[in-house]
Design brief:
Chain B: Belongs to the ABC transporter superfamily. The complex is a heterodimer. Chain A is mostly helical. Helix content of chain A is about 70%, strand content about 0%. The chains are: A mainly alpha, B alpha/beta. At the A-B interface, helix 1 and helix 4 of A face helix 2, helix 3, helix 4 and helix 6 of B.
Chain lengths: ~280, ~325
């Protein structure tokens, strides 16, 4: 075989150099690794998560909006200003669901990097937490890009947008948490995520107050609207940008999303553990 | 428990008593006892489905046992999983390297999970790439590397925390002979440097090459334990005479040669005659007018031990 390298043997292992780090540091380390991956592939990612909502804003807000008369629900603002907050929410939720779906299943099944990670001192629960935080970070980047670009269109009516961005990210996190849990129990080839997008996320985007107020919908549809996280997110984000929401309903919307986030996290931690420790 | 000056347990690195693993209705490991000493190369030999990988996963703290006791580096995997994993290295059966990162990045990022500093993993990656003979591919992505290179990288990755124990699940399955030999040479070097090796394999030559001591597993149980040479001595004869016939016709000759060997095994296309001196036996076989298609004289291997113990061959 090849000639011997100068260094013949490795350090004699009296004691291994590895150590157990605390849960927050563990999650930070995992995110650092995801970041080194992202640095190589950020361009493609940025397009899908940042640019796409902007195309929507341009087409719907400016194009379609030019045909929308100042009717009852606009009340003095432009259609662009009406849909800018809700397109932020639905764009963030779409990204959240995508990031929480296929890539997570791949971590277990194809790329199997999750399997590699839990052979180290990092636990499945920490891995879950890191992945959720990573998605939150990605959503935040997307939200800021969208926020800045939409400002150039004149889509924001005031400084409320500074609250709208974190609220939209929060809505995204509330959706990502349970979808990650779902991904961890998915055994198939990931067709379930296509169905999720087609039959849940898209209808939610269309009928949860993104493009028009939900009171224009027939009464029997309303219960479906109430369980839609995008609607709760839309209401909150519109409230901070355009006003017109009293504290009690706002609290209700926030609590719904908190409940979804917490339940999703509990289910996600558990399902990550059950899939990786068998 | 005896302890070295450094204060670490010097006796068993792994000890299992009545160790069991049950998946729903299927019991993969059905109560096994074994110990692995520090610095030893220990093998789990057996066919697919023998319970080797399940045992390995329990040692690696990624699969809780369902019965018995298990201690790794003196700790219980059930309660000290992360602490144990910090001190061991794992090389999985299927390479789960990050195909989209470079060789160097794979080593550096993995090291970070063990709480190692950036400076430390930077130097360690260079050292490990040298060891794995991947220095000239340092900044290439992993995807296009050959199977042997990927496996060497997986081993290098498993060494990033200077583990006291390295677990290798079928380290050379799927590799070509040259790649296997290079890998064995690297593993042998690791052993010399004092790393405890625990490996599973269904290749008898691999077990003979690498293991100081091994257990033969079948159906979730340990059916024999010892050094490769010791097992061969205990369960087989020194030599074997293989007589090859047209498949199906071999049974006709059993009665003719039976008394020439200590034991005769009947395989689908041949007879195996276990004997001290196979050349002498071959001469006596031809005296009896038995005309095989071909005959072969060889030394006994662990394959013969396995055949004796289970009545089946290791690799189908």
């Amino acid at each position: 075989m090849a000639t011997d390298t100068p260094r013949q043997t490795l350090t004699t292992p009296v004691r291994a150099t590895g150590s157990v780090v605390g849960p927050w540091r563990a999650m930070a380390l995992r995110m650092e690794v995801l970041w080194s991956w992202y640095r190589r592939y950020w361009r493609a990612n940025l397009y899908s998560s940042g640019l796409q909502p902007l195309l929507f804003l341009g087409a719907m807000g400016l194009g379609l909006g030019s045909q929308v008369k100042d009717g009852s629900f606009l009340g003095g603002i432009t259609y662009l200003q009406y849909i800018a907050p809700s397109l932020l929410v639905s764009g963030i939720v779409a990204t959240a669901v995508n990031e929480a779906g296929h890539p997570v299943l791949s971590g277990f099944k194809w790329k199997q990097d999750y399997v590699a990670v839990v052979a180290t001192p990092i636990t499945p629960q920490q891995l879950y937490g890191a992945q959720l935080l990573w998605i939150v970070l990605r959503l935040s980047i997307s939200a800021v890009i969208y926020g800045l670009a939409a400002a150039l269109f004149g889509a924001w009516t005031g400084p409320g947008v500074l609250l709208a961005l974190p609220l939209a990210v929060f809505t995204g996190a509330a959706c990502a948490a349970p979808v990650m849990a779902f991904a961890a129990v998915t055994r198939g080839e990931g067709h379930a995520f296509v169905a999720l997008n087609r039959f849940v996320v898209l209808p939610m985007t269309l009928f949860a107050g993104t493009f028009f107020p939900v009171d224009r919908l027939p009464g029997p549809c309303l219960p479906l609207v109430w369980i839609s996280p995008i609607w709760h997110g839309n209401e909150l984000v519109r409230a901070v940008t355009l006003g017109g929401l009293s504290p009690l309903p706002a609290l209700g919307h926030a609590l719904f999303l908190v409940a979804m986030l917490v339940t999703g996290m509990l289910a996600g931690r558990r399902s990550f553990y059950r899939r990786l420790v068998i | 428990m005896s302890r070295t000056e450094a204060g670490f347990d010097d006796t068993a690195v792994v000890s299992a008593r009545g160790l069991k693993k049950r998946f729903d209705s299927f019991e993969a490991v059905r109560g096994i006892d074994f110990e692995v000493a520090r610095g030893e190369a220990f093998g789990l030999l057996g066919p697919n489905g023998a319970g080797k990988s399940s045992t390995m996963r329990m040692i690696a703290c990624t699969s809780p046992r369902t019965g018995g006791t298990l201690r790794v580096l003196g700790m219980d995997p059930q309660t000290h999983g992360p602490a144990i994993r910090a001190r061991i290295g794992t090389v999985p059966q299927t390479d789960n390297l990050d195909m989209e990162l470079t060789v160097r990045q794979n080593l550096q990022t993995y090291g970070r999970y063990f709480g190692l500093s950036r400076a430390h993993v930077r130097d360690k990656a260079v050292e490990l790439m040298e060891f794995a003979r991947l220095s000239d591919r340092a900044d290439d992505e992993v995807q296009p590397l050959s199977g042997g290179m990927k496996r060497r990288l997986a081993i290098a990755r498993g060494l990033v925390n200077d583990p006291e124990v390295l677990l290798l699940d079928e380290p050379t399955t799927g590799l070509d002979p040259q790649a296997r030999h290079l890998l064995w040479e690297r593993l042998f070097r690791l052993k010399q440097s004092g790393v405890t090796l625990i490996l599973t394999t269904h290749y008898m030559d691999e077990a003979e090459q690498l293991c100081d001591r091994l257990v033969v597993m079948d159906g979730g149980l340990i059916v024999a334990e010892g050094s490769p040479a010791g097992l061969i001595e205990q369960y087989s004869t020194r030599e074997v005479l293989e007589l090859r016939f047209h498949p199906g016709t071999q049974t006709r000759y059993v009665s003719a040669v039976e008394d020439l060997a200590e034991r005769v095994e009947v395989l689908p296309d041949r007879l195996l005659l276990y004997t001290k001196n196979a050349d002498a036996t071959a001469a006596r076989v031809s005296e009896r007018d038995v005309r095989p298609l071909s005959s072969l004289v060889r030394r006994s291997t662990l394959e013969d031990v396995f055949l004796r113990l289970t009545g089946r061959t290791l690799v189908d």
